[in-house]
Amino acid sequence: MGSRYSDRSDVRPFTCHPNCAGRRFLAQAESLLTAELKKPTITTIQGLAILGPLYVAMGEDAAGWLHHGMAIQLALDMGMNLDSTVLNGSERFPPEEIELRRQIYWALYCDNKFWSSYTGRVCNMLDSNASVNLPAFPQANRDGNTRRLAVDALHYVLCTHGQILENIHLNMSVIN
Q1: Which of 34, 81, 116, 133 makes a 20 to 30 Å CA pair with 105?
Q2: Which Pfam families does the UniProt entry name for this protein (predicted)?
Q3: Helix or strand or coil: residue 15?
C-alpha cells in the first residue's frame, strides 16, 4: 500500500500516472492470495481486508468490494462472529487469539458499514448475527502507553459508530 505514495522509479514505472504505483506488488499479493484461499487463515482475512481499500484507491471499487466481501465471508466461516470465549468444542482458543479474533471481527464490521455508506450496497455483517462483545472502552493503563490507549479508544468509538450506521442503513432500507 505504501508504494502508492513513493517517488521511487522502481515502484512507479510510469511516472505520469499515480495509479500505476505499486501494481507490481499488487500482482504479487494476488498471486499469493490464490494459494492462500485454498487453505485460508486469519492472515488471509487480514490480507483481503487490506487489499479492498487498495483497489478503491486505484479506482477499482468493484474489485475492492469483492475482496472485502471475501474477507467477511471467511471471517463468518471461521466463526469470528461468535464469542470465542464460550465456544464449545475440543479446541479452545488462547486468550491472545480470542482478542485477535474480536479485533478482526469488529474491524470488518466497521469496514462493512463504511463500505455500505460509500457504495450504497447492503450491509452484510449485522449485530443480530453476532455474539462478539464490543471492545471495552479503555481505561487509563498503568504502563503509561498513551498511544495504545488512543488506538483502543478509537477502535471502540469506530465500533459504536458502526452500530449507529447499521441502524441508519436498516431504517433507510425499510423506508425504500
Answers
A1: 34
A2: Fungal_trans (PF04082)
A3: coil
pLDDT at 40: 94
Contacts of residue 42, Cβ cutoff 8 Å, sequence gap at least 6: 78, 100, 101, 104
Residues 106, 140: Cα–Cα separation, whole Å:
22
Burial 25-56 (b: 16+ CB within 10 A, else e): ebeebeeebeebeeebeeebbbbbbebbbbbb
Measuring CA to CA, how many Å separate 83 from each of 13, 32, 71, 128, 155?
46, 30, 18, 13, 18
Q: What is the model's pTM?
A: 0.80
Tell me the average pLDDT of the chain. 83
| In the block, residue with C-alpha cell 471499487 | 61
For residue 141, what is its C-alpha cell? 493503563
Task: Specify the residue for cell string 487489499.
Answer: 51
Place of cell 458502526: 162
Which residue is it, cell 464469542?
A: 83
Q: CB under 8 Å, gap of 24 or more: what pairs does 25-28 form?
A: 26/51, 26/54, 26/58
CB 93 within 8 A of CB 147: no
